Amino acid sequence: MSDKEPQLLHLVFGGELENPAEARFKNIDELDIVGIYPNYALAEKAWRGKAQQTVDNAHMRYFIVHMHRFLDPDGDGKF
Please, what is the end-to-end C-alpha distance for the chain in angstroms? Predict the structure, then answer.
């Protein structure tokens, strides 16, 4: 990645939900912060791995957050 390319950072995290139909965590102190990745492809790979590890627990969910959208909501590369 060159210095001129935008950094499209993605956060992968998850935890146990109170109800599988809602994104409300049972205990936010126990969130699993998987990591921050430089692109969606790597984030999806990490997300998929964690999701597959917890497939037997219907209350466990992992998410990908597009951090770059929060850092640069206008998409113009200026903060």
Answer: 20
State how far the Cα of 37 lies from the Cα of 67, in Å rounded to an integer: 10
Kindly give, in sequence order, each residue whose CB lies less than 8 Å from that of residue 51, ignoring residues fewer than 6 positions away. Answer: 14, 61, 62
Q: Are 43 and 37 in contact (CB under 8 A)?
A: yes
Is the overall model pTM greater than 0.70, yes or no?
Answer: yes
- pLDDT tens digits, the chain, 79 residues: what are they? 556 677 799 999 999 999 999 999 999 999 999 999 999 999 999 999 999 999 999 999 999 999 988 777 777 666 5
Q: Which of 67, 4, 60 is nearest to 35 (CA)?
A: 67
Q: Which of 19-24's residues contact partners 24+ apart within 8 Å by CB, and which partners?
A: 19/59, 20/58, 20/59, 20/61, 23/61, 23/63
At residue 12, what is the residue type?
A: V
